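This section describes the prediction task in plain terms. A model, or a person checking by hand, is given the sequence of a single protein chain and must write out its three-dimensional structure as a string of tokens. No templates, partner chains or ligands are provided. The sample shown here is typical of the held-out split.
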Amino acid sequence: MYIFIIFDIFATAMETEFLTYKFRLLPNNEQKEFLNVQFGNVRFVYNYFLDKHLKENYMPLSNYIDLYDLVEKFCWLKKSQINSLEYSYKKFCNNIKFINSNQSSELKFLSKRKFNCFNIKSSNVEVIKNKFIKIPMLNSLIKCIVHRKIKGQILLYSIIKYNDGKFYVNILTQNKCKKQRVKCKNIVGLDLGIKNIVTTSDGKIYDNPKYINKYLHNVSVATKHLHNKKRGSNSFERQRIKLAKLYKKIANSRKDNLHKISREIVNNYDAVCCEKLNIKDLVKNHTCLKVFMMQVWEH
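The expected answer:
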């Protein structure tokens, strides 16, 4: 969340704080091939049991017996750590429980062209000299850009590949901290809008840069070139990555602006009050759908 609501009540005892550090990975071609194999195996486990659930009404078990049988059936799954496959199976189980309890729509199969991720236990990974990361079953070290110090006990490593072809690692840490009581002196109210992102009760206005309009021509040209390529060819894949990088640039520009606004508000005020918008109902208005989605109110 970019807009924080701070109250005048803090616990005096020690509290557990979970933080996630995100670092860029720079693997070579051999390491990329190894990581793609891990992504494929984890994705196969999830899609296999999901397909079994849809066709045979399969319900997941509390233990991993079915997963172990699957690994024995498909020997190439042994190229991945069993812990990573267990995390994928656990994710499938949690999604099935969530759908049954909330009666939401059906699950979708994972696609290799979108978000890819696999998890590794903290005991099996090692960060060396804040420059490299050692992953089990991989002989070489992967170069990692560690731009800040990691604090706390490391719980989990998540290797991520986005659709623009870039690799990252998310490190989940646990730390115990003692929060102090703060007196609220400066209180401000925020009003979210369309023309302006935020208007404070003090009269300060934060304009909307509208990054999507700035890069709209580039997006349309890149999309047109992508449609002219043959699907599955190397030129199609190169153009798809170009378009994905362009969308990523728009998203990063928008996030950077929101982080700057939220940091300025948090530094200047002790308590922040903002309205609660029902985004789902607002998006149902298709005439203003593009305008509402550009605001990124959910962040």
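For orientation: The radius of gyration is 23 Å.
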